[in-house]
């Protein structure tokens, strides 16, 4: 069997991590990359021992040797690049969030379904081994009925008014910034681990730093996106959720946390301590389970590639996701067979985009409950 050949578009922060995750699989490789210029693409291709570098993404998509197109660009480019790749008959992977709006996400899903290509979104965090174990515990009723889900995604890279990033530009990242971008991971994770869907939300969005210094521009620039978001949510079984996100929290480097309280027990996982799962009980001692394949639920043990005492984290979760997606493609399976537990499809991405829509609608209404549109219609 020949190696699966992947073309990677975008090579900023996350692009090299896509490359690394794919190469670690063994049965797939990145054989071409595309960036914003021919010079840059060739330099990066040479640096990372990639066979081809394209300064125009259209040439990468047209390359007959490419089986899968992996899009790791700023969000506003996801839709046009994905639609072009789908039209060319390529299988498509898109970095999260899937699109700027749910309308774009819906268009991408419909195009992929018509063409019959495999489609996926990189909600990679859910494939940490202990998060998969947490999902297995919830699914078999080990914590009882899910009642309360809470968590946050806190970082510090926007703490000062001199901090700037393309994610603050509505045209490139959408109108909700961190609430949609970082938040997308939590909305997906909360639904994936609990097995429940978020059906309505109530949001409060705030802007503390209203002007920022943008590199290359004179004077302070007005910021039109929130820098703090707080969201209440309701799940389809009546459980409630509480989530907050901001990149202005000093000392929080990449603090994504989720805790699920059921009628019998609670579970808590923290991204900055990914090899630990806290299990809280009332009649028995609470415990911290350390990652060890022998202690994980049997169907998810393969997500831990190393023995106990050998830490695994963000890059390993990314590898686990890419293995699920690309093995599905390599086996020649039809997209209709895709299981959203094994990997998030464009339908998953649309579901999250519609949660973001409801959050925006709630904030515009002054903090009122708003329903999440059904992504299955």
From N to C, what is the helix and strand string?
A: EHEHEHEHEHEHEHHEEEEEEEEEHHE
CATH level 3 topology of the largest domain:
Dihydrodipicolinate Reductase, domain 2
CATH superfamily of the largest domain: Dihydrodipicolinate Reductase, domain 2
Distance between the termini: 38 Å
Give the strand order, joined by hyphens, for the main sheet.
Answer: 16-15-14-13-7-12-11-8-17
Number of domains: 2
Q: Quaternary arrangement of the chains shown?
A: single chain
CATH C-level name of the largest domain = Alpha Beta
How much beta, percentage-wise?
15-25%
Shape by Cα distribution: globular
Stretches with pLDDT under 50, minimum 5 residues? none
Helical content, roughly? 25-40%
Estimated radius of gyration: 21 Å
CATH architecture of the largest domain: 2-Layer Sandwich
Largest sheet: 9 strands, mixed
What is the average per-residue confidence, as pLDDT, rounded to a whole number?
96
Structural class: alpha/beta
Number of strands: 17
Give the helix tally: 10
């Amino acid at each position: 069997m020949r190696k699966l050949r992947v073309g990677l578009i975008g090579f900023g922060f996350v692009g090299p991590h896509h490359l690394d995750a794919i190469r670690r699989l063994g049965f797939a490789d990145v054989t071409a990359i595309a960036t914003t210029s021919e010079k840059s693409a060739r330099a990066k291709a040479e640096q990372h021992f990639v066979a081809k570098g394209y300064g125009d993404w259209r040439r990468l998509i047209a390359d007959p040797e490419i089986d899968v197109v992996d899009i790791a660009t700023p969000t506003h480019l996801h839709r046009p690049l994905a639609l072009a790749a789908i039209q060319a008959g390529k299988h498509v992977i898109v970095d999260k969030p899937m699109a700027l709006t749910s309308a774009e996400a819906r268009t991408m899903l419909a195009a992929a379904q018509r063409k019959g290509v495999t489609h996926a979104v990189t909600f990679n965090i859910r494939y940490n081994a202990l998060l998969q174990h947490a999902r297995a515990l919830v699914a078999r009723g080990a914590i009882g009925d899910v009642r309360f889900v809470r968590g946050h995604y806190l970082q510090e890279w926007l703490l000062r008014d001199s901090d700037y990033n393309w994610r603050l530009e509505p045209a490139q990242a959408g109108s909700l910034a961190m609430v949609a971008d970082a938040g997308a991971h939590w909305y997906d994770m909360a639904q994936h681990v609990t097995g429940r869907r978020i059906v309505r939300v109530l949001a409060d969005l705030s802007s503390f730093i209203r002007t920022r210094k943008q590199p290359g521009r004179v004077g302070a620039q007005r910021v039109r996106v929130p820098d703090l978001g707080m969201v209440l949510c309701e799940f389809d079984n009546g459980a409630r959720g509480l989530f907050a996100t901001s990149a202005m929290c000093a000392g929080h480097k990449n603090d994504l946390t989720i805790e699920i309280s059921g009628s019998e027990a609670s579970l808590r996982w923290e991204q900055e301590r990914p090899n630990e799962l806290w299990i809280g009980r009332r009649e028995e001692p609470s415990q911290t389970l350390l990652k060890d394949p022998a202690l994980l639920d049997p169907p998810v043990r393969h997500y831990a590639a190393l023995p106990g005492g050998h830490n695994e984290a963000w890059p390993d979760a990314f590898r686990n996701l890419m293995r699920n997606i690309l093995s599905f493609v390599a086996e020649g399976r039809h997209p209709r067979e895709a299981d959203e537990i094994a990997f998030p499809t464009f339908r998953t991405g649309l579901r999250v985009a519609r949660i973001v829509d409801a959050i925006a609608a709630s904030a515009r209404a002054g903090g009122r409950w708003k329903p999440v549109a059904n992504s299955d219609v």
